[in-house]
Write a structure and sequence with these properties.
By secondary structure, the chain is of the alpha+beta class. It has helices at about 20-35, 35-50, 55-70, 85-90, 130-140, 145-150, 165-185; strands spanning about 100-110, 120-125, 150-155, 185-190.
Length: about 190
């Protein structure tokens, strides 16, 4: 039986969490065969959150991007990031008080030239969507140097619940999220 996962289902809710690994593998193969990027993304994400070895996650990402690129949700990263489960865990501890027009976002930074092959994260807030703001950084528009030079992609998933929030909440959460991610061992920029 093919799952019917909706694009509105947050990866943080982990809809496949109760499913056995073998069942996830079956759903993943079905998703590939039908070019279902949403279900495939949830399958890959669940394995990632369970601590699947990086090689297996990278292979699954490659297969999914090859067969269903146009339907993969924005929240699925294009590459393996070992600390992604930690980013979800930390980000989910933050809750805004009310709705508004500000967004919290994470940008993946490449620090591979520092010898460790390590990724970092930039924490920011903006009235623009995370993807729009990332594009602005890369175009040099009010750009943080770290994102301009090292930015690879937006990590939408961990902060999906921190979109369209009140400016005061966003300003507080931006700082606290950056501090909490750094305390969890992630190389962090931004969060002013």
């Amino acid at each position: 039986m093919q799952l019917a996962l909706d694009v509105k289902i947050s990866p943080a809710s982990r809809p496949l969490q109760g499913m056995a690994q073998a069942a996830i593998a079956v759903q993943f193969e079905r998703a590939l065969a039908s070019a279902d990027g949403i279900t495939g993304a949830h399958c890959v994400h669940e394995l990632w959150m369970r601590g699947e070895i990086s090689l297996n996650v990278e292979r699954a990402l490659e297969r999914l991007w090859s067969s269903a690129a146009t339907s993969i949700p924005d929240w699925l990263p294009m590459r393996f990031i070992h600390w992604l489960p930690t980013a979800y865990e930390v980000a989910l501890t933050f809750r805004p008080d009310t709705k508004g027009r500000s967004n919290i976002y994470l940008a993946l930074l490449d620090y591979g030239d520092r010898g460790a092959g390590e990724y970092g994260a930039y924490v920011g807030m903006s009235k623009y969507s995370p993807l729009e703001r990332f594009d602005q950084h890369k175009a040099g528009i009010r750009a943080a140097g770290s994102v301009l030079r090292r930015g690879l992609e937006v990590l939408t998933g961990p902060t999906l619940h921190l979109q369209y929030i009140r400016h005061a909440d966003a300003a507080r959460i931006e700082v606290e999220l950056a501090e909490a991610l750094a305390e969890a061992g992630i190389l962090v920029k931004g969060g002013h």
